[in-house]
Amino acid sequence: MSDVIRQEFADRLVATDEENKRVKTEMSELKARHKLELERAKAEVELVQKAKEEEMEEVHKRYSSRSSKVDFRRQLNRFQKTEIKEN
Q1: DSSP letters of 45-67?
Q2: CA distance 38 to 44
Q3: How does pLDDT run across 43-82, given as a tens digit for each residue?
Q4: Is the dihedral of CA 22, 25, 29, 34 positive or negative?
Q5: Model pTM score
Q6: How many CB atoms lie within 10 A of CB 79?
Q7: How many H-runs (helices) and E-runs (strands) does the chain carry?
Q8: Spatial distance between the Cα atoms of 15 and 52, rounded to a whole number of angstroms
């Protein structure tokens, strides 16, 4: 009877050891997959941020250009008005 119990215990120990190895392998694979997904997500975020920065820079350039044109027109109008008054 004790031999049967020892054998069953040994079988369960081997099965538990194999299950433990399988779980460790699976966990390593999941960690690697997660790391790759995280790196891809970070790269995607960086691309989106770069695109948004470039877009904001372009908007700023257009605003600055537009703003300087408006200022120039205002100054030109003032000059023309003062010139007309003087004549």
Answers
A1: HHHHHHHHHHHHHHHHHHHHHHH
A2: 10
A3: 999 999 999 999 999 998 888 877 777 777 787 777 777 7
A4: positive
A5: 0.55
A6: 10
A7: 1, 0
A8: 55
The Cα–Cα gap between 76 and 68 comes to: 12
Query: What are the structure tokens assigned to 16, written together?
Result: 């538990």
Cα angle for residues 49, 47, 55 (degrees, 5° grid): 50
Mind listing the pLDDT tens digit for each residue in 3-23? Answer: 889 999 999 999 999 999 999
Q: Enter the tokens of residue 8.
A: 């069953």
């250009």: which residue's tokens?
A: 65
Give the length of the chain: 87
